[in-house]
Amino acid sequence: MSLKLPFIYYGGDYNPDQWTEDIWREDMSLFKKAGINIVTLPVFSWAKLQPSEDTYDFLWLDKILELLHRYSINVCLATSTAAQPAWMSRKYPDMLPVDFDGRQRKHGGRVNFCPNNAKYHELSTNLARNLAKRYKDHPALKVWHIGNEYGNYCYCDTCASKFREWLRKRYGTIDELNRRWNMSFWGHTVYDWDEIVIPSGISEMWKDGERMRTCFQGISIDYNRFMSDSILSCYLNEYNAIREICDHIPITTNLMGAFKPLDYFKWAEHMDVVSWDNYPSLTELPGATAMKHDLMRGLKDGQPFMLMEQTPSQQNWAPYNSLKRPGVMRLLSYQAVAHGADTVMFFQLRRSIGACEKFHGAVIAHAGHENTRVFKECAALGEELKILGDRIIDSRIHARVAIIFDWDNWWAVEFSSGPTIELNYIKQVEKYYMALHDMNISVDFVRADADMAKYNIVFAPLLYMVKPMVAGNLEKFVKKGGTFVTTFFSGIVDGNDLVTLGGYPGELRNLLGIWVEEIDALFPNMKNSIVMDQPYGSLEGSYECGMLCDLLHLEDAKALASYGKDFYAGMPALTVNEYGRGKAYYIASDPEERFIKGFIRQICSEKGIEGLFETAPGVEITQRFKNESEFTFILNHNDYPVDINLKDLNFKDLLANIDKTGRMTLGAKDAAILERIVDNEI
Ligand code: GLA
Ligand code: ZN
User: How far, in Å, CA of 8 to CA of 619, rounded?
Assistant: First the structure.
């Protein structure tokens, strides 16, 4: 089931249980004034919905749903299970999780439950089931929203015993487990499943600033997998309970972009539609936000997603909670749509009076009326979205370039002890993504075992862990003519973080035609250089590189550039291997941005891939397609107007409702959506 919307859903989180009924009525008229057509609720109302184990109170929810319906406002119905009531934690203290340092937590905060606690499973599922029974046919109900921002790991005894069961299923025998984890290291061999100790801050692991470190990567990676699965089971219990009763409404939970603890590719298999919460800071680069949208779109193979939350103005939880500058809320809303969102939703519709979110931005401020900058901007956007109707709903992005993203690999790379503490998966992915983004080239994010047939170029930055079937999948892609690019510190280990013997890059060696003998780690102030053997496209001369330098030998590959310094000066630093009808590149160190851009420009031009229009920096362009229509989104992130050359193509500017061709000017922080009829769907 997917989301087929009649128009762009516009609205967001609303907490009527924090307000009196006369405020509800004021809210309804303000929502209408703002063009709001969907409300998400009740996200944190378990305590109100279930005052004790055998009493439910749905009357207030009936009332607010009726009121919303009367105002023709749709509902994204949340199951409220992200924060259990205090009575529940008191009655079932095992429901409270144990943290990384082994401390049993007390009641408080939110998402503060053990994901393997049977009572939590039972009671959250019951609540979801009761909500489904009561509201399945409610005419306002359009989407189900389970829990809220799942993601907290637990280290309690229940989780430990569930982990052992999970391992038994995965590995079958204790011998196999010892082998897969390389337990003869430091005498870790176990003889009984019950000897397995979960990895935490009081066993194998420790915290090093923000980073979790471990003595045993295999164990820690499996614990992440297990936790991601355990937390997913909480979502799935509710999903199944709802689905049994209500089979016609799509179900989602709000994800958080590049969020490390959960393997979102696995999660998305169980979501009818992906939704996510986007909270860029004032200084986040537009490309970094775009990357998260693209990653979220990639989770379900390009299906449109929901922008479930963004702030209309400011956050409360960052160190510095800047206001969104005039026009920026609108611009970022269109950026989400430009990357595949079919909804624009906020946290929150009305600002609360107490607790930590009272200074979080909202459509309705503490002033309580519509005469605020933020309200006016929200209302203006609401009006504008009405113009779009269902025109761009369900349109798709057609990317010819993909980047592989892999949660197991992310965990493995950053659990690695050596060669350098600088290894940061997201930063490496971002470097390649940003270069493509700056050239206005659309990018899909894919899993490593995805069918790559529709792409011309696939990047796999830092593909350290190569899981089963992946090398074969990449070989097939290149053999048929694809271009594959990977970097230093790739092809090192299998799915259990065990090194593939015979030389790096292990299973990718055949495809890349190289053999990496050693890996040098440079201090942050040490640099080497990548010197082009001869010009390659616009690449010419020497480029700075650092962090890691692979010392490699050519097998079938050719060198395109070599190191400029140190005892390995002259060894290959950039190689290409002609493989079947395609090419596989290896970038052996971490190069400066200028190199990455030049390199990408060259391999894209070989494949006839170019940016949509030549634009000034800070202007972002994407396209979505539906039937015979092509929608071009032009977003000016700059503080000044820019000129765009539309060549001699004829467009209709949907928001301004005028025809456009030739040159157009786009104001500071402005956005335009241009429609063009194309003969064939591309
Ligand atoms: C998250 C949550 C919301 C709210 C916002 C504040 O996205 O889902 O409940 O706390 O953060 O930014
Ligand atoms: Zn637990």
Answer: 24
pLDDT band at 648 (very low <50, low <70, confident <90, very high): confident
With respect to residue 75, please indicate whether it lies within any of the assigned structural domains. yes
What pTM, to 2 d.p., does this model score?
0.98
Question: Any idea what the CATH number is for the domain that residue 117 is in?
Answer: 3.20.20.80
pLDDT at 157 exceeding the cut of 70 = yes
Would the pLDDT of 682 be above 50?
no
- Whether residue 99 lies inside any domain: the answer is no
**How far is it, in rounded angstroms, from Cα 577 to Cα 484?**
10
Separation of first and last alpha carbons in the chain? 25
Q: Report if residue 449 sits inside a domain.
A: yes
What is the total count of domains within the chain?
A: 3
In the reported structure, the alpha carbon of residue 303 is separated from the centroid of ligand 2 by a whole-number distance in angstroms of: 34
What pLDDT is recorded for position 3?
Answer: 78
Residue 216 lies in a domain: no
Best of 347, 358, 360 for a ligand 1 pocket test (most atoms within 8 Å of beta carbon) = 347
Those residues whose beta carbon sits under 5 angstroms from the ion ligand 2 are 114, 116, 154, 156, 158-159
Domain that holds residue 538: 401-606
What value does the mean pLDDT take over residues 310-323?
Answer: 97
Check whether residue 364 and residue 405 sit in a common domain. no
Element (H, E) at 603: helix 593-606
- Cβ(271)–Cβ(252) under 8 Å? yes
Question: How far does the centroid of ligand 2 lie from the alpha carbon of residue 411, in Å?
Answer: 20
